[in-house]
Specification:
It contains 12 helices and 12 strands. The protein is an alpha/beta fold and 394 residues long. Strands 4, 5, 6, 7, 8, 9, 10, 11 and 12 form a 9-stranded mixed beta sheet that branches. Strands 1-2-3 form a 3-stranded antiparallel beta sheet. The longest helix is centred in the N-terminal third of the chain and has 20 residues. The structure holds magnesium ion (MG). The site of magnesium ion has 6 residues, from loops.
Length: 394
Amino acid sequence: MRITAIRQGVAPISSEIANAYIDFSKMTASIVAVTVEDGQGRSATGFGFNSNGRYAQPGLLAERFIPRLQEAPEALLATPEGGLDPAGAWSAMMRNEKPGGHGERSVAVGVLDMALWDAAAKLEGVPLWKLLAERFRQGQADETAWIYAAGGYYYPGKDVSALVEEMRRYLGMGYSVVKMKIGGAPGVPIKEALPEDVKRIEAVLALLGGDGSRLCVDVNGRFGLHAALAYGAALAPYRLRWYEEPLDPLDYSNHAALAEQYGGPLATGENLFSMQDARNLIRHGGLRPDRDILQFDPALSYGLVEYLRTLEMLAQHGWSPRRCVPHGGHQFALNIAVGLGLGGNESYPEVFAPFGGFADDTPVRDSRIHLHDSPGIGFERKNALHAVLKTLLD
Ligand code: MG
């Protein structure tokens, strides 16, 4: 097994939206194409990118991770059956990296890991979800994935009626569960944000027939414990699907304090980028395996090789993979959800184009989606994204 070419680029992922913590007007993403040959006449090119929320990593890729991958011994890159082994590639990329302090190298490695899994499935002529089910789950894959529409961002001039119209569009696209941002646009004091958010939530709930299990709310880590508890008390009567990232993602003891007071499901994890960070959350965050949701995003956190370690850690702590609903709204995590039996996946019907969203010809019905049957992750079945990735090969 040989890597014959690795190309990288930077693509804009910008939009005029904001959550409670950042605005996205300057956001970028790394894109890569990795070409492999298996020594038996077959070759494949896999594509990868990082999902939204972290910036492109061209320097880390060029200086450390691409050269190491190019220098990886051929034997390390092959499974005993002759397939491409992303775990071997991963150990080559992480040579001479100390543990801890993960920073954003996990993003750079995640981009390459995605491309390697795409190539591995293409070499075997199967969709990634099927390859994963065969390698890790005795061939058992889910029929469909549960997905929900994430949106409800703040942007200049957007009022409550525009928010409700946005959510109505998601229902029209086949989603039955939606998510909106709360906690205020950047710079809005929290005491002003809470009464405004109550109005926004009640307006969206009216659209959803008053059913709180169809609505998630997301704070993007903005609150301290006091604000998280105040919001939690205000949210509790609505019995929402989940209350997402109320606190700083690394403040585990505050999560434990909140989980003692807020009885409904909490969701977090999209800003934890390693198995070790995820393990600290599970050990010290007071989260409850019977209701809470874990949102680790494989595209931002060292890829699927690391995500498999995270799933194993979760099993050791009594957590089902069904509690995992990855952040990012990308096809990589959707394949993982179906192939490894997760609880579902995020979806961004209107933002983060062209990276968000799934194959063009797979409609959403009642918040569930069938997967494509093309070799690889399925990028070739999503025209707008494939057009961007293909520019790497010109
Ligand atoms: Mg979130």
